[in-house]
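Fill in residues.
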């Protein structure tokens, strides 16, 4: 088969961009936690890259994109276990959606999606999750939750794909999946000590803003790369991604201003992420007007939704549910209104389409959200009973960095002591 060099190059570059998002996410989360937990958050995200990369090669990819098992569209077989038969075309991608890239390029591109999704979940349990059980959780979750949902929505043989639900780059597979899972594991692990009575402000907003900027940059690979080619559809996805991110930023800080009188820097970063989350499923199906509305709606609505955790008494530490679950739902639903065949997919209600697309989107949201929440709750509950997911009260008070990793992100104390002992200030070596 002839492969396009341009398409292959674009997909491989996009894979690198998406992989770079996970360190960006690590910085985003690390800036929002207390200083004693910075390395703990970085370690969870970096370790996720390693764990999922191996799980993906040795099974999860085959379950997500292998030949459909039983014909029901629920899960793939282990035909591609260990990347066996890797020269064979990816099943189902024929006709108008035929791929013009080597199958291994598709493998590595989809691997980066599988990496960042469980990394997103770490924001829900920030400050209190033990490292060893976390590794086990990520491995199990990638096989039992991520792979099936990826098969449902991304694989042409998946039941949601065949039904007609539209998800261009991961509204269900990544955003709703991670958001629902984050709420489930947060419910199992329980609230941080002192929450919500004690204030727990972010210790380094510039670090969080840097992380958000890296996420925004990488999101172009996430969304435009999902066109699987250097083509007009990728260009549409690219401009829609930036448009929604910009609108989400403005929507969030405008809502902050209306509700509290101030627009915050962290709000700007969160709003951009919310807009990018919402455009993820829809970037290849809407025009620039639709992208702007979707981003603006996500920024405004998510800024209000993050406060729901206080009413629910559910400590979703870094608002994975309020941003990724709610933003993913917004993006999926609004495809049913703003989808246009002029870009890709089918027309939504506002472009002359009917109700079926909106119904398909609703089914996809409910199915993926319910399965992710339920399966994650079971996995977390079993692990918590067997090995314990949560740090001890003493370790939680001390902080993840020293208690779990025997390190500290900041050596202010050492520098100060050296300055006293040497008759003058000397920087830490």
């Amino acid at each position: 088969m002839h492969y396009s060099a341009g398409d292959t190059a674009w997909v491989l570059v996009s894979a690198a961009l998406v992989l770079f998002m996970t360190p960006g996410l690590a910085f985003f989360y690390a800036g929002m936690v207390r200083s004693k937990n910075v390395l703990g958050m970085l370690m969870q995200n970096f370790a996720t890259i390693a764990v999922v990369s191996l799980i993906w090669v040795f099974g999860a990819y085959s379950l997500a994109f292998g030949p459909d098992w039983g014909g029901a569209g629920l899960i793939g077989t282990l035909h591609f276990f260990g990347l066996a038969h890797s020269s064979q075309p990816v099943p189902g991608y024929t006709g108008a959606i035929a791929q013009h890239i080597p199958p291994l390029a598709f493998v590595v591109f989809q691997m980066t999606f599988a990496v960042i999704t469980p990394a997103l979940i770490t924001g829900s349990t920030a400050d209190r999750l033990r490292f060893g059980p976390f590794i086990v959780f990520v491995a199990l979750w990638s096989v039992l939750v991520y792979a099936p949902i990826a098969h449902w929505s991304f694989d042409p043989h998946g039941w949601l794909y065949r039904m007609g639900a539209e998800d261009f780059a991961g509204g269900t597979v990544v955003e709703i999946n991670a958001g629902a899972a984050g709420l489930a594991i947060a419910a199992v692990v329980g609230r941080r000590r002192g929450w919500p009575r004690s204030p727990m402000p972010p210790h380094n907003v510039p670090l969080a803003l840097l992380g958000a900027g890296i996420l925004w940059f990488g999101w172009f690979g996430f969304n435009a790369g999902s066109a699987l080619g250097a083509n007009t559809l990728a260009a549409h996805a690219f401009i829609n991604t930036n448009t929604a991110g910009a609108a989400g930023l403005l929507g969030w800080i405008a809502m902050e201003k209306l509700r509290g009188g101030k627009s915050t820097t962290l709000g700007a970063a969160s709003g951009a992420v919310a807009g990018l989350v919402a455009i993820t499923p829809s970037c290849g199906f809407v025009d620039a007007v639709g992208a702007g509305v979707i981003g603006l709606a996500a920024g405004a609505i998510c800024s209000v939704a993050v406060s729901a955790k206080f009413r629910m008494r559910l400590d979703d530490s870094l608002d994975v549910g309020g941003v990724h679950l709610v933003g993913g739902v917004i993006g999926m639903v609004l495809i049913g209104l703003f989808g246009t065949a002029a870009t890709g997919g089918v027309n939504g209600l506002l472009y002359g389409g009917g109700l079926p697309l909106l119904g398909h989107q609703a089914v996809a949201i409910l199915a993926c959200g319910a399965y992710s929440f339920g399966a994650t709750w079971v996995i977390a509950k079993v692990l918590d009973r067997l090995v314990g997911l949560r740090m001890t009260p003493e370790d939680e008070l001390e902080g993840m960095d020293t208690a779990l990793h025997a390190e500290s992100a900041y050596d202010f104390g050492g520098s100060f002591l050296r300055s006293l002992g040497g008759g003058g200030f000397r920087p830490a070596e």
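The two ends are 56 Å apart (CA to CA).
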